[in-house]
Amino acid sequence: MMKCLIVGGSGQFGICLSQILLKKNYNIQITTRSVSKTKKKLEDLKINTNKVKAIYLNILNKEQILKILKRKYDYIFYFAGQSSPSVSFKKKNQTFESNYLGCKNFLEGLKKLNLKSKFFNASSSEIFSDTKKRITINSKKKPISPYGMAKLLSFNITKKFRNIDNLNAYNFVFFNSESFFREKNYLISKICLAAINAKNFDKKTDFGKLDIIREWNWCKEQCYLITKCLTKKPNDFILSNGKEYSGYQMLNYAFKYFKLDFRNFVKIKEKYYRKKDFKFKKTNFKKNIKNIDPNWKPKIFGKKIIYKLINYYVKNNIY
After folding, report:
1. CATH no. of 3-177+218-239
2. Do the beta carbons of residue 158 and residue 102 sit within 8 Å?
3. For the domain bounded by 182-215+243-281+301-315, which CATH number is listed?
């Protein structure tokens, strides 16, 4: 039985990956700052807490990390960290500590204990420069937010421990990710909820810029790609579907679901604009997927993501 540790495992990636690895009969432990809240969350999601055990960890406490690492895991996934680029301008220290220092502490712990565990750091598309070109792992890196900078620092130090210290250290670069488990204050969730509230309550919703273009991924598909990388040699991988849509396209899908015209319910307001943002985020899908599984193709993107989320929110009375 493979032994797996998911750091920051109560977020959408931790939950989606746990669901996949449980089917492979992995022994899974997830770290959290609140064991009781995480245990209740897992129980509410019908995840067996005997098979997915929540353990307390402060990722800035090196002694705690060493104590946990001595349990000798086959795989360690670092998903911890403040994950909002816009919030990172207000919470720079928290963003830096959770995304970079925590990752660094784990890498140093693995080196100190001379462990052969495979360590997977979750990086972000926010590490790249503002470009209209399709992105590969070698594209120019120039973040525009504290979040992007923290992710780039963790990306670089993961490479350093791999190349210089011979650790089994990997980087996964994720682009925008959606699931039933994501917080509802991100754009795609907000779009779906705006359409539901327009239908049910004739309610209007304010948005920031919607002319941005992104690849919105279904988180569980990205986690499937993670499992494809587990047996590969340590490297850096981009996990994104190559299917780009503008915010307006996704908004239109959501309102068309209810046969509504979003122009009657949506206002664009400058006060909701991000302090700094990229207009385009597009990947070179064929080149990136070639290093993971050249035969893989995404099944859930664009309209399907919108419909899955709306169906879930309506079924569970989430407004």
Report:
1. 3.40.50.720
2. no
3. 3.90.25.10
CB-based contact 3:73 (threshold 8 Å): yes
How do 168-174 and 118-124 pair as beta strands? parallel
Q: Which pTM was predicted?
A: 0.96
| pLDDT profile of the chain (319 residues), mean per 10 | 95 96 95 94 90 96 98 97 94 97 98 98 97 96 97 98 98 97 94 98 96 97 98 98 98 98 95 86 97 97 98 94
Residue 191 · residue 249 · CB < 8 Å = no
Residue 135, SS3?
Answer: strand
CA distance 162 to 72: 18
C-beta of residue 235 within 8 angstroms of C-beta of residue 291: yes
Question: Which residues pair with residue 171 across a beta bridge?
Answer: 121, 236
CA of residue 308 relative to chain centroid, distance? 18
